[in-house]
From TrEMBL:
<dbReference type="InterPro" id="IPR011047">
    <property type="entry name" value="Quinoprotein_ADH-like_sf"/>
</dbReference>
<dbReference type="Pfam" id="PF21348">
    <property type="entry name" value="RGL11_C"/>
</dbReference>
<dbReference type="InterPro" id="IPR049366">
    <property type="entry name" value="RGL11_C"/>
</dbReference>
<protein>
    <recommendedName>
        <fullName>Rhamnogalacturonan lyase family 11 C-terminal domain-containing protein</fullName>
    </recommendedName>
</protein>
<feature type="domain" description="Rhamnogalacturonan lyase family 11 C-terminal">
    <location>
        <begin position="161"/>
        <end position="304"/>
    </location>
</feature>
Amino acid sequence: MTDDISLDSLYEVRVADELRQLRAAPVRLGDGREDALLCVHSAHPGVDPGQNHFTLPTDTLKLTLVTADEDVRWTHDVGEGIVPGVWFCPVFPFDLDGDGVDEIWYVDTEDPSHPFSLTGHRLGRIDATTGERTGMWEWPDYPYEPMSMAYRNFIFGGHADGEPVLVTAQGTYREMRLQGWNPDLSPRWETTFARDDPGSRGSHLCPVLDVNDDGVDEVLWGERLLELDGGEELWCADRDSWSGHSDIVQPTLDHERDTWYIYTCRESHTEEPPRVVTYDAAGERVWSALDEGHMHTGWTARLGDRGRVAMAGANKHAAYDEMREYAWDVFTGDERTLDYPVYSTLPVDLDGDGVHELVYEMFDREGRVVDHRGDVLGDVDDRVARFPPSKLFDLPGEQFLTYTEDGRIRLWGDSNATDGDVAHQRYAHPYYRKAQRLAAVGYNWRNVAGL
């Protein structure tokens, strides 16, 4: 551990007797109260809808709200009718009614005896102050696809000229359906992409931001940009040359030029090059790299004298030491050399200096923390949660979230941290909060680092 960064547990609370999966997202409670943290957890590992990955659940999904003073405010058991996995039950805190307090939106059911029911699932709403369910509305029909393709649920939202818009969505790899909802839960719009429509499929990420600064939020749905006011597609990048699924779609802001870039890593359709592409805010290519490979992971981060770096990792089924890693300057595409492994890392600015450290989230290095040079800062024995490392509870610097099998969650950070000007600029940007809010939906664990 270096003399500058002191890696310590800054927060701990017990949320269950056993934890085998954990997602989380900050929740706004209004009336000047400090944000809480919503923990989405189960004693059964996360269940994937893929036939080769699915396991029969032995526990239900729970939602637990914890406060900054390490207090458990409430726990809501979703029940046996909902499979405990992110693709079956996304969870999204969002203030749709405009009262200053987030509601908790998730997938519920009126037919708990049939967890794969095509007609029983519902959009559920929970009061964030009490943990009580306050309503259910019909969940839109699933695409008629194999199980792994159909059960890919998303809930997200944003604003159109100040008015909140909630969005539900189904599908990723083939047919994709999205629906916009007004504050009174009346339908606002519906957009469907048929299986054979040209252009990209979806991503495991669904970043929401105002790319063109027109007062209307957009969502990056794969390599398409859809505005949330009417569900209209503003652009589809590489429409005629890319029809696959992108594992990573990460907006990255050039603060000096106040311009967004969209960094993508492509997984499927490996016969369609290139495999890594960065676009500008209008969906035009800025640079691309690699003609082949299954790009399974990636991020953009601030790595000190290496600048703003884009990373991609390939070969998810290979042994760890055989995985291929690549790096470039995120804005120019110039190659960068990283002389330490980064495949399973998440960026986190622990000390608030505007430079990212990296925490390993998987494999034999899980829990190890290194600085931007690859020097080891420390090791954490807990499991690393699928959560975007970011600033929580007004603790100094950014933190990453861990959990233990006996039900405790912890926030780890630098007890010596002091937030500098660059860090404050990142925290104050509207996208920071939007990215945090998506943490319990899909695989939106890396989005914050794009700032």
